[in-house]
Amino acid sequence: MRSVLQIFSLALFLAFLCSGYEVMATHIRAGEITARRISTTTHRYEIKLTAYFDMQNGEGAANAQNSVFFTIGNVRSTGTPVVLEAPRIQPIPNIGNNTTQNTYIINYTFPTAATYRISFEEDNRNNGILNIGPPPTQNLNFYVSTILEINANFGLNQTPVLLNAPIDLAAVGQRYIHNPGAFDADGDSLAYHLFTPQRSGVNGAGINLQYVNPNQIGAPGQTEAGASPATFSMDEITGDLVWDAPVTKGYYNVAFVVEEWRDGFLIGQIVRDMQIIVDDARNDRPLVDPLPEICVEAGTFINQQINATDKNGDKLTLTSTGGVYQASLITPALAKFNVAQQGSQGTVTGQFTWQTSCNHIRLEPYDVLFKVEDAAGPNANPSLFRKLVDMTTLSIRVYGPKPLGLKAVAATDPAGTAYRLTWDAYKCQVVGAKIVIYRRESCSDIPEDVCITGIPAGSGYEEIGRVAVNETTYLDNDNGNGLRPGVSYSYRLVVEFPRPGTNANEPGNLIGGGESVASDEFCLNLPMLMPVITNVTVDSTSETKGVITVKWTKPAASSGLPAQYRLFRAVGQTGTAFTQIATINTNLTPGAADTIFVDRNLNTLVNPYNYKLEYWYTQGGQLVKLDDAETASSVRLEQNAAQPNQVGIKWAALVPWDNSNRTHRVYREDKTKPGTFNRIADVTVQGPQTFTFTDDGSDKYAADGIVNITIVKDSTYCYKVETVGSYNNSQIKPAVLYNFSQILCVSSSDTTKPCPPVLTLDPLNCDSLQAHPEAFCNSPTFTNHLAWTYPQSVGGKDCDPNVFAYKIYYARYEGDTPGLIATVTTPPSPLSTTYDHQGLTSFAGCYFVTAVNRFGSESAPSNLVCKDNCPMYVLPNVFTPNGDLKNDVFQPYECPAFVQSLEFKAFNRWGAQVFSTKDVNINWNGKTNSGKDLAAGQYYYEVTIYFESSKKVTTPTTIKGWVQLLR
């Protein structure tokens, strides 16, 4: 049985054969609608239909088409669309292939910004079209539509225009190519896809016709190269419509959509319905040489040769279309295309020239279409000859010139360390363009490719600011925070360009976005004015006698000596409760042992530690702090999950240098030589903080001898890890930094952590406190009392009873990551399960507790417990602003407790606002905000208060009441 598709195709084909190409009143072959905004103040657009009529079989009807009707409707509205009549402009009588081009134009002001469909319909299509139905196709009307998005964010946006006529001859058995030559003057990105031809529906909408792709008529067919089946496709990026290759001669209609995209948003689309005429041809199509994409700096003169050939020696005509030739689409200078010997046989050469300028910079490339068409040569039979074409596209990207002359020098700034950047005046002074400043730490090359503009992703540069294109300087003080002293910073510039209608130059500005190539790097190879910590290494692991050695760099010698280092320590890798542990005076004498401190009597068994270094110098006879070095923690080693008869470990260090992409060293104690650690593995690590290793007993490092073991259950094994890192800065010595963790002893059966404790927090009795507000006023700090229990079992599994310590974590706000604030290690026996968090400015905060076993393995967090303050704000109901210094101002009783902010408003009896303030204590003196005394009487107030809470975003409390003003 024949398929439905075969029967449909055969019926259409027979109808075409019976028609003999002759129809009475059918004439429309192809067309599309475009729109262009023509007003800067209103939504007024020029709407144009470009239609192509059959002059062989419908000349009378074509000539009579003096006007057409547009239907315009809001896509998202059910209202009745507008119907407008548009007159015909002077037609082009014959563009080839017995086709005339007609344009119809009308100007229309859209009522509001919205999404509109503009459509056109007209009877009749050609008869005998083979791939649409139902037949006869002369009874099918022709319909196309365009979606226009009117949006203030798009400026003076206009649709693309299609510069290449949609009528070409195709030859049976030969590859056919068509490109619409779409050009978008706004520089928007264009995309293409096939679409089903339509007829008109209700209220300007379209209804799909019965349609099959042309390659399925006479299927399967084969390509020009002999592959089967024949193919029909459209390149979504270039817009090349390729049919490789027709099987059956006749008329075919196809449709496609040209989509307009900006910054990832679809902002409009055009439907083109076009006709392909397929005939037998005793002829081979000509070929035009393909052209690679070119990328040029604005101001470059392009001189490109175009070559086409015909193996039959036919006469060749080489033409070109593109927006670069049209003054209405780009600003001068326009491109030119010259063919010295048009119509020459076998070979033809053209010369494309274009003097680019700053006005031509844009994000998307310019596409220039070159088309070669043959004509009968001396060896051809004119009666059998059919003209054939080939085409190619030259894609040209025009980018902004590279910014030049970038330099940076130290600048005086209240924020601290700052640098003043300067550069040469930019070559392309386009209104609305911005110079974008990028910075990274340390110097770095980036790949240079003229087809890649801007700063490549992953290069480490971050935008720090942008200025107008006519500026030549920028102060970098890290947005008022001050830069890190002594750090070598690298800077680059990129210029970003606006789109049309987005700046004061509209509508003349035709720049379509885009950017420049990045400037050359300017790198500040600065001396290290500020020391940096280089080592926090654990020398001894003990509950009470642990030792950590801290080292740092010696800064460059400068005035202001003598100087001083001050070293601080906090418990925990993220600890912030720093305590000063050392003061070291220095004259920066080379070789002096003043950049090292051995920290003793620590609990390195349970705790990691965090260190901070301050550097002070002499100014005016006084020591003045220059800055803080970035904090650095000790390496913390913990047990990690592993299979039976294996031991898993993991380690982490929060340090300013880079420990990733390095090979760390793992050591295991040799049980035959207690206290001796054998290097068993080198671990290449990737992540920035936490690294892992699983020990199966084998020794993978042979240089210090092979010590293999068999890991057995319930036996204890001890490990330490040496991290390897670097600042990746040639000025910091040593270049490679080595730091040891504490020693961790674990059992292969200790694969689970201790159980998490259960935490409670003493509640506040707000009623009692409100009755005695002096408790708030007289206490400068507050204390939270924590208590917890350790479970015997969880989920039916026994908990490790050998808890060695508890760790307490605190966060000021819900959602923040709690940091370690204390470790409870020393009994009163049994081990204490309470803790007082003292010195708080409010009760608000969140806590959890963890348990640590004898191997240093830490449990999961306990339940998170958060606590809030008792809001305290009580107002009197009378005040007497009479100047006797008694009750002269309206303010809260006692002290307002835990008030973050408030807004107070007072109203008279008629509801008119007479006073307002954001003063937490209000302090209303009975006057208006302008200082006018208010009459005695009753006033009403409303207070909106934000109290300090454990939540970052709090819900306001509103208090309403009245107060009597007496004089």
From TrEMBL:
Family matches, as NCBIfam families: Bac_Flav_CTERM
Short name of one Pfam family: CHU_C
Annotated protein name in UniProt: Gliding motility-associated C-terminal domain-containing protein
Signal peptide region: none
InterPro entries: Ig-like_fold (IPR013783), T9SS_type_B (IPR026341)
UniProt organism field: Dyadobacter pollutisoli
